[in-house]
Amino acid sequence: xxxxxxxxxxxxxxLSTSQGALYxxxxxxxxxxxxxxxxxxxxxxxxxxxxxxxxNSPRVAGQIGTGVAAETVQRIRDSFLDAQxxxxxxxxxxxxxxSESLTKMEGVMNEPxxxxxxxxMEKFWNSLQGLTANTxxxxxxxxxxxxxxxxxxTLNYYYNSLxxxxxxxxxxxxxxxxxxxxxxxxxxxxxxxxxxxxxxGYIPNDLYDKRDVLVDNLxxxxxxxxxxxxxxxxxxxxxxxxxxxxxxxxxxxGSSFVPPIxxxxxxxxxxxxxxxxxxxxxxxxxxxxxxxxxSKTLTDYKFSGELxxxxxxxxxxxxxxxxxxxxxxxxxxLDNMTTAFVNEFNAIHKQGYAxxxxxxxxxxxxxxxxxxxxxxxxxxxxxIVKDPTKIAAGGKSGGASGDNENAKLLADLxxxxxxxxxxxxxxxxxxxxxxxxxxxxxxxxxxxxxQSAQKNLSNSVVLAASVNQNRESVSSVSxxxxxxxxxxxxxxxxxxxxxxxxxxxxxDKIINGMGTVGR
Length: 519
Prior knowledge:
Layout: H1 6-30, E1 40-46, E2 68-75, H2 79-109, H3 117-133, H4 138-197, H5 205-221, E3 224-229, E4 244-250, E5 256-267, E6 270-274, E7 277-281, E8 288-293, E9 296-298, H6 306-314, E10 316-317, E11 323-324, H7 326-350, E12 366-367, H8 374-377, E13 379-380, H9 382-386, H10 405-412, H11 435-475, H12 479-513
Antiparallel strand pairs: 1-2, 3-4, 4-5, 5-6, 7-8, 8-9, 10-11, 12-13
């Protein structure tokens, strides 16, 4: 026979479970705008039927349900969408850093504009053409000297501005390395907190959410892979427990380094430790020459993310000892171009005659400071600036009226290819075309690289937004859905309460109403 009071317990369980579901719904509503919050759901299960199988089980027609229980409060999350989002976030970090660096470089080069090097060089060539038309005119000579100063000043500005931006990028590398280390420490601390809760059978959803936000942020800085690990000796952990995060640094093609590099290490015995990042710089060049993760050092930088983008913009030392990177490459091209141009221009200038001189010139038109970059130190000879008559325009004698043979040679340098220069150094083979065409090629490549980085960034942002929308459709809080659930659980609570009232009335009738006949 079934107990008269059995229905009260069933109703009580319904009340308790519906109340817990309402509390969870209220928590979802309260955190609708909380960053990284994943909506939570109460997993309801039937309690064991009555009677259970046994020798002394009461003889009834069949098992009767005993109500409902809240098994777990689980957050709604799709790990596959998380992995997709982090992949796109990583690309946003890399292409964002590259795009920003190249955009700043374009701003410095400022082409095509009237103040850019191309326009300044055109004025210089035109001034030389003017000099060939009237070599004895002091005004024409002053124009050559002043436009030469403009050329030198423009190259000085390019070099100084590019190195200034490069220094800022180098500072960002150190900031991002510190940010990575902070995130690694925070994730490890959350792993420790989670490891103290899960073995007791609880599901620390709030800690999960905090950890996932940190992992999302870390994925933008470096390419990572997240593995969920449930240690072997882990108490009474629930089947839906997420476990601890082992975070591995990945190569840009998605493969592991050999041996693997774990930023946060976890195995079947529990937490192992962390590997913080340390940036080292070459003492001679100042470029990045290695990244140390714990006891392992990387020198090839074959990973993606914002840190990689900054390093490949700032500059790094390759395995063969050469320097790579967007800014070192641009500075090297400007330096080689300037060196070749100055040497050839000076060689032609010194074979000519200044106004009024009967011997060839001994002056360089442009001067370079030893030990410094050509683009950084180029300037017009001070004697020529003070006295433009010392410009060697004549080809035979400075006293010959209208002698412009050397001025023509100087002006013709505009069309002369680097391969035809009489003065060559070890970097001459890297120079192609004339000064103007080579410089146009530099600017053209910069524009293509910048546009490519911006396009890749735009595509990554669109894909990340699409994945994130899918992720939010699964994990984010919909107030409409929560209101529907609120009404549903409220009605379930009311029904259970009504059931309890009905059982109370039945028991009242049995206890107080039966056996009163004939009194």
